[in-house]
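task queued by scheduler; priority normal; single chain, no ligands, no partner chains; default sampling; output format set to structure tokens
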Amino acid sequence: MNNYYYNPDIHHRRSIRLQGYDYAQKGMYFITLCVQERECIFGTIFENRMFLNEIGQIVTDEWVNTMNIRDNVIIHDFIVMPNHIHGIVEITYNKNNECLIGEFVSPTKSIGAIVRGFKIATTKRIKDFITPVGANGNSPNGNYPLQEWIINHLPHIWQRNYYEHIIRDYNDHERIAKYINTNPSRWEEDMFNE
């Protein structure tokens, strides 16, 4: 018999979001998403520049595509790094649409919904790119570097959570945009570079 029981003081995953803040409201947000185990699967830094591989290009394409599928979202400065992505997302107007997902009500235009949709889309496209297809089990992309790591981590390529910062004013925006745009030049000291 299983002696384990749910204890909310131990098992509850505490939110890192600002309590009481509506993340679907108009505003600008700085977002960071990381790969599981900080594995470098999106490309490499060389001479202070990021060089995307095919997986990194998928991530870039889906990040930009976020604007095409959400009419109230603008993607500003962003950078795909070897194992994470930084970006500024703007919600241009409140859209209070909600949808019922199981027992939960989820705001469809919130930062959380945007991140969730992005993670799902990139994971699906990466899986389609990397996993074997056909009767002979061969991948159209051969023995892609990191293929085994990616297959072993599907469907969880991304870390479970994400970092966000509410951009409060112009100076905050400019500081963050500069941080994003100069990120490759600081890769050696980057906290995500292990």
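post-processing summary
- The chain has one domain: 21-189.
- Residues 11-15, 98-106 have pLDDT under 50 and may be disordered.
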